[in-house]
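Notes continue from the previous slide.

Worked example: a multi-chain complex. Inputs as given:
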Amino acid sequence: MKKKYVIPVFVPHLGCPNDCVFCNQKSISGQKKNITKEDAKKTIEYYLDNIKDKKGKKEIAFFGGSFTGIDVNVQEELLQVAYEYIKKGQVDSIRISTRPDYINREILKRLKKYKVKTIELGVQSTNDYILKRANRGHDFNDVKKASKLIRWYGFNLGHQMMVGLPESTRNDEINTAKALIKLKPKMVRIYPVLVIKGTRLEKECEEGIYEPLTVVQAVEICKQLVRMFVNKKIDVIRVGLQNTDEICEPGKEESEVIAGPFHPAFRQLVESSMWYDAIVEKIKRLNVKVKEVKVTVNPIDINNVIGHKKENVKKLKEMYEVDLIVKQDKKIKQGKSKIEITKKYNDFLEGTEDEKIKEKVTK
Ligand code: SF4
């Protein structure tokens, strides 16, 4: 399968008329000025020069704001730049992200003209109360309408949802995932809410009105959501905000993050935790006390099975006195595994008995 490369072009939605509680428009996109077609061209050229794999699939992704909400002339200019690379065969597709209430037939026709392939909608929640509380300025009905139109026009549909919005519970987030699954997105992104400088959430946090999730809580809920989407064959293309110079460890001088479940390897925490559950489930199903378990996976999954800083290895030892041995095998598909119990405590005890016997004999 050809490798896929994303060429990110950040489009800050400066002057966005909305005021979502979690958003500081500049920090999220990492950009403090409007983007010109020259900027876009420079970024695309830079990536094309640096992607050595000429056969890989390349996609220009306009990230960071509500693309279809910016000035139409700027939209057209940026799309034209991207489309030129499609025409020259240097890039394979274009993706944009936007708000559900910034989608209509006219907008979709424009995107079609420039061969945009994927449209991602910032849904955040499907609960109207939570959307209102987050000051999103759209409701779930907008999400339904936009999703249906996007699919009807033949675009790939993507959804972005958040966990840990003010007053949102785990159940609300599960219900959001259920409602999104019904709208048949091809892909989703899951973002735990981080408290960013200069946002309304920062104030709410200071006033004690909002309490962000901890990393552990965010991992637990994200794990459940990832399972739901994956079971329905929906690609989970991101879990956690991308680390940038500004979106980094709270407390660092340059960090725009004040609080919340930030972790530089958040997705790995989620995936490792899922592997941990799978291994423990397998062990628990056996009616024996396991001493050693061998997990064989695709090389891509190795780090997730071991866990961030060997967390799974340590946890299995501490909680269940089980040694985890991880092997790789390219023939095993990514995400799949062979889990074998290689030593049980019975064997172990028998082994020691044998050794004792041998000792006796030699003596
Ligand atoms: S998250 Fe909300 S406030 Fe921020 S750019 Fe998007 S619509 Fe505007």
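Summary box: Residues 266-285 form the longest helix (20 residues). The pocket of iron/sulfur cluster is lined by residues 13, 16, 18-20, 23, 25, 65-66, 99 (CB under 6 Å).
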